[in-house]
Amino acid sequence: MSRACEVDRMLLLPIERMIERVSVARQESDTAFFFSLLYFGEMLVKLTTAGLVAAILDDRERHRYRQLYRLVRADGLGEWSVAIDDILTGPTAQFLTPAARVEQRELIQRSTLGTWQYESVALLSRCLKEFDVEREDTQGKIDGRRWFTIFAEFRNKTRGHGAVQGAMCSRLAPGLERSIRLIAENFQLFRRPSAYLYRNLSKKYRVTRLTEKTDPFDYLRSDGTPTFENGVYIYFDSPERVELVSSDPDGSDFFFPNGAFSDKKYEQISYITDNRLRVDSSAYLTPATVLPKSETHGVGILDIQGKCFGNVPPPPANYVARLELEKYLYEKLMDDRHPIITVRGAGGIGKTSLAITVLQKVAQESRYSAIIWFSARDIDLMSEGPKDVKPQVRTEAEIANEFSQLMRPTGCSERGFKPERYLADSFTKSPVGDPLLFVFDNFETVRSPGSLYAWIDAYVRNPNKVFITTRFSDFKGDYPVEVFGMSETESYQLMNETAHNLGVRKFLTPEYRQELFRESDGHPYVMKILLGEVAKAGRPQKVERIISARADILEALFERTYAGLTPAAKLVFMILSNWRSTLPQLAVEAVMLRPQNEKFDAEAALEELKRSSFVEARTSADGDIFLTVPFVAAIFGKRKLAVSADKSVVESNTEILRFLGAAQKTDIQRGIGPRVGAMFGQIAEKVAKNSDKLTEYKPVMEFVANKYPPAWLLLARLFEESKIDGDLARAKEAVRHYLELANNSEDQRAAWKKLAEYCRRTDDWNGEIHALVGMSELSGTSLEDVSNAANRLNSLFKTHQFLFDHERDLLVARLACVMETHMDQADATDCSRLAWLYLRIREDAKARSVAERGLKLNPANEYCLKLREKFAQAARSELRRPASGTA
């Protein structure tokens, strides 16, 4: 193999793989060698374009999306070379990340003879001249981007139009190979650290190296805090996803868009293996043209609104008041505490409408001199369905520019004015004296919510305030306000008004109204959509059928938030959606501990789902947390499950959750006990049929028991009923775990008795004695139980020698002390048993006294009579003993 095709480990992995293919083709024939080089060059064009698109920063004009939109539809290579020119020198160029200016300079600067740019273009031009003899030779300075335009033309004249003869292939291949290798080996884009990131359920990332050095990504192997979607990434100023290149966690192959676009799928091709895929095209269906403004786009100027200035959009039509929420939020915005207020809730739940309504009330007071509204909304939820719109702001720079245009400070139009510095200073101290209220609507759609929040948090100071609405938040230091579905009364009012406007009041029977409320969970946008579908059909419709058929609504409400979840949260969400019931949180966490599951933090995953409004949590009277997935979210979750690679994992975990039995929100008041009992009962049935199942279920049951102590007794019973040797020993341990956690004397008493029984059945005399004494010492233990315990101890001490004297004395003394407190209720037999305890610890005088007391109660009691005889014999023996010093 020639040096030209040796694999250089410093190259990007797909380039290495392509070099390997070229090397194999070289051995086959000159024709195969030539055409493999054409594939290599075509891949370089698309790889370059994909990397440059990844370097485009998000902005409200959607320059990155416009390139993606055109390239997934491109059926020819020429469109890719045109995109390169547009990114490097067109309007898009101003949105390149600063680090990518290196690549920009390498391709647009005029280069001279001896540079890799010049040589690669010159070699490729000579190859093209074989087909176009009138083509002029390369002269003077040239820029590197011309290579991509020339290659697209060359490809069309060779692979694109007719066959090239073998002799021609032999002549062209060496120069073509050298030209391609100059680009592949020298262009900075291919030298940048690149990796495939795959997030595990543990939140940490598997980092697959695509270049020799991946230092900027290596921290992700141990730090799962940042959120990155699985895929190919290149490092500029930060990791940027290369959306136009697809691979897998092993980096086994690399696919690029190849046209054949439809509203369902488009084609991807691998130039390494010639494999082709049809992949989902839904992410690229929104037109790339300029979008209209949102309904909640801020007013373009600061105008008088109430007693202050503001640019808050007008209130929504047909808004139904949510008085309790409005009052609470109003109070928080008016006080001098909590500089950052965050309203969090699911998409379409009414956060923006609530915010605008409350801000109108705030504006009627003199708390703020101005209310500044920034909207990052990119989807309007219209009655006919979701519509894409142009966001007002997306980045810190756009927010700062918008603020400067609204405030028009002195010098804002002069060179050197820094809008971001002005905004930061204004967060800290109002430039107009009286406080400012900054409102950020749809905060989750800004370019980097975490970074923007950190910036705001670093500068904002009371009495200024920041008010945020968002679908998802993981912020520190804010004051969160949760927005859930409407109450039943609010929902009925919304239904009545919507039905009246649509002319379908006649269908809104009490039964159908109740069904709509129950199935929508009071979600205002969902209720409007459902009634809109009723109006279209002219008759009532099944809620699930309507929602299942409206993929656009499901995606608008949930897709963006779902995409940002960790793999663990996605898995748990699909499990909860697969069987929509009100479930105890501890049971859900427990199921995730099955040995078959990959280990991850289930509690953290559930907290993430709560913050994302995918799961609602309610607390029972005894403090247990119950989880419910809203109906519409559950339908979305089932759609995700249908195409998930984790479907079998979800099904096996769901099976155990079904052991809990179906339940509704109204069942929460009954607490967790009945649910756990049902779960353990189902498990017992499974174990009875197959004892091997106990190993699978044991971690689940132990986790539940640690959080709900009575479950240890259920687990002990399960061990007791098991046919496996040694399970009575595990039953004892389970009861001991319960006793460590229990705090109810009556329940503890039963547990001590059960422990004593298990110890007796396993000949564990020490354990039995400890259990009996422990039971007797509980407050409220009856004399009958204490007396029976004393009887059993006396019997054990009579037949077994197994304790050191000191340990025996301590246990006997403790039990005797308990019996003394019950003597006013004791009969003669009880007295005899206490007397024997005294004898065990050599308290003979007390023993005689108690025995005599028993005989007074019942002179014929055989046990006390035997004790009297024992004392008499002891006395006679003492009299017969020789005196001290007698011979």
What does it look like?
The chain is elongated, with a radius of gyration of 39 Å. The protein has a 7-stranded mixed β-sheet with strand order 10-11-13-16-17-12-18, with helices on both faces. Helix 6 packs parallel to helix 7 (146-157). The chain contains 35 helices and 21 strands. Helix content is 52%, strand content 10%.
In a nutshell, what does this entry contain?
This protein is α/β, with parallel strands linked by helices and 887 residues long. It has 35 helices and 21 strands.
Rg, nearest Å: 39 Å
Distance between the termini: 117 Å
Q: Identify low-pLDDT runs.
A: 1-9
The assigned structural class equals: alpha/beta
Query: Percent of residues in helical segments?
Result: 40-55%
Assembly type of the chains comes to single chain
Total E-strand runs: 21
Overall pLDDT level: 89
What fraction of the residues are assigned to beta strands by DSSP?
5-15%
Question: What global shape is seen?
Answer: elongated
Strand order, main sheet: write it out: 10-11-13-16-17-12-18
What characterizes the major β-sheet? 7 strands, mixed
Helix count equals 35
